[in-house]
Design brief:
- By secondary structure, this protein is an alpha/beta fold.
- The protein has 8 helices and 7 strands.
- Helix 6 links the parallel strand 2 and strand 3.
- The structure holds S-adenosylmethionine (SAM).
Length: about 230
């Protein structure tokens, strides 16, 4: 098949998936009223004002972004799950999940005061830990049905070189240890300098371990293979 036709097919498949996600979101709505009920809105707005201009300070915007994440993973529709979010930031995603009776835990470094303040208002627990290549995660003393990581920032060395297959292989094997049988892993990476999300080697590696890879999204919906 000609390259232009292959690319065309790929683009239309991605376009179709995006449209399907949008349709699902409008069918299975997730209204904010019940999500925000009981939150200390006054404190939240005070934090927002004090940190104005910081990337994650616009509460309404990040609530909307994370509502879409919850909807796209259908986590507002099923039974309660145990969810670990790596690089949880201010905990927007986990906060919404808590409203659906999921049991949640974040993991992140402790460098951004805004994140600590948001986590406190949201009542989201965080393990403070820095993910490093070839170093296992701490023992979290439980297994998880879902392990997620959005807008990943831990996959690069200090000189900003992105992880290759070996670093990812180590992390995935380690995550498998923390994953309950039948558990799922969902990762979303940031773009590389060339605008792509993954190198072909890393993309093939994820696929070989059973992931469905779509742009920045890497979804092991049936656990890890191999
Ligand atoms: C771009 S932010 C994304 C935050 C959140 N996941 C979201 O999408 O809203 C990246 C997050 O990863 C965390 N992070 C970066 N490097 C990390 C590391 N080596 N170990 C743990 N967390 C890390 C940052 O502190 C930050 O919270």
């Amino acid at each position: 098949m000609k390259l232009s036709r292959k690319v065309g097919k790929l683009v239309s498949r991605e376009g179709y998936r995006r449209a399907w996600r949008r349709a699902q979101r409008s069918i299975f709505r997730l209204p904010f009223g019940p999500v925000m009920a009981g939150v200390d809105e006054k404190r939240l707005r005070e934090i927002e004002k004090r940190h104005a201009g910081e990337k994650y300070a616009d509460v309404d915007h990040w609530m909307r972004v994370n509502r879409e994440r919850v909807q796209d993973l259908k986590l507002h529709r099923g039974r309660p799950q145990r969810v670990l979010d790596l690089g949880c930031g201010g905990g927007y995603f986990l906060f919404i999940l808590k409203r659906f009776n999921h049991s949640v835990l974040g993991l992140d470094v402790d460098r951004v005061p805004l994140f600590s303040e948001l986590l406190e208002v949201f009542g989201v627990a965080r393990v403070v830990f820095e993910i490093k290549p070839f170093e296992p995660l701490p023992n979290l003393r439980q297994q998880f049905d879902w392990i997620t990581a959005f807008s990943i920032g831990f996959d690069r060395s200090c000189d900003n070189v992105r992880w290759g297959v070996q670093e990812w292989d180590f992390l995935l094997r380690d995550l498998q240890r923390q994953l309950a049988p039948g558990g799922k892993i969902y990762l979303a990476v940031n773009p590389l300098p060339n605008g792509e999300y993954l190198t072909p080697e890393v993309r093939d590696f994820f696929a070989s371990r059973g992931a469905d890879v779509e742009r920045e999204r890497i979804f092991f919906r049936n656990g890890l293979r191999g």
